[in-house]
Amino acid sequence: MIEITLAQTQPDYILIEELADVIWRKHYIPITGIGQVEHMLKKYQSAEAISKQVEDEGFEYFILRYDKTPVGYISIRKEEDKLFLSKIYVLSEYRGKKIGKTAMQFIEEKAKAYGLKTIMLTVNKNNTNSIKAYEKLGFINVCALVKDIGNGYVMDDYQMEKKI
Ligand SMILES: CC(C)(COP(=O)(O)OP(=O)(O)OC[C@H]1O[C@@H](n2cnc3c(N)ncnc32)[C@H](O)[C@@H]1OP(=O)(O)O)[C@@H](O)C(=O)NCCC(=O)NCCS
């Protein structure tokens, strides 16, 4: 059984920090190298950074549980005319069990509730498996974008969108 619950307490943010540390190191070190992963974990996925994103920047985080076990998380933000899907991460041993698909249905309901007709995300150009999953889930590649994230690192991404 898949459950999706709003993260709103410090223990929730610490749990997401721990999930991010495991998922990102395993998934992104082969793609971007350890230096960029550690920079991004500290800048975006520490409990402190998550708390600031929720309290000051309009992000909503949700924890994904599979049979009561925390297995991943998502983060969204309502933009002017789109819902920005900022994060969607599932532990590697739980992938392929429709957790991502269930999370995406939940995100679509959120977008509809906000009166939005488009979901937008960015994905590293070399994150091939996730791009394939997004295509299966109905997203299309709309453009490439490069974002400077400090310390000499850039995010070299595609922007993908889904109309709902
Ligand atoms: C992307 C991710 C969230 C998908 O979650 P998941 O629980 O594994 O996905 P699901 O089992 O719900 O699969 C959803 C659909 O994508 C397809 N899919 C998933 N992984 C795939 C892959 N590697 N190649 C092709 N299709 C894939 C599934 O077949 C399914 O399609 P279907 O419904 O037509 O059968 C998960 O794989 C993940 O955390 N990846 C690593 C982290 C990451 O890169 N996150 C995105 C950052 S931008």
Q: Can you walk through the features of this model?
A:
- The protein has a seven-stranded mixed beta sheet, sandwiched between helices.
- The protein has a domain at 2-115: Gcn5-related N-acetyltransferase (GNAT) (Aminopeptidase, 3-Layer(aba) Sandwich), CATH 3.40.630.
- Helices cover 41% and strands 37% of the residues.
- By secondary structure, the chain is an alpha+beta fold.
- The chain is built from five helices and seven strands, in the order βαααβββαβαββ.
- The protein is globular, with a radius of gyration of 15 Å.
- Bound molecules: coenzyme A.
- The site of coenzyme A has 19 residues, from strand 4, helix 4 and helix 5.
Kindly summarize this structure in a few lines.
The chain is an alpha+beta fold and 164 residues long. It has five helices and seven strands.
Physical arrangement of strands within the biggest beta sheet: 1-2-3-4-5-7-6
CATH architecture tag of the domain at 2-115: 3-Layer(aba) Sandwich
What name is given to the CATH topology of the domain at 2-115? Aminopeptidase
**What is the strand content?**
35-45%
**Helix/strand/pairing category:** alpha+beta
The CATH superfamily of the domain at 2-115 is identified as Gcn5-related N-acetyltransferase (GNAT)
Kindly report the average pLDDT value: 97
Assign the CATH class of the domain at 2-115.
Alpha Beta
Spell out which ligands are present.
Answer: coenzyme A
Rounded to the nearest angstrom, the radius of gyration is 15 Å
Low-confidence stretches: none
What helical percentage do the residues reach?
A: 40-55%
Largest sheet: 7 strands, mixed
| DSSP strand tally | 7
Order of helices and strands: EHHHEEEHEHEE
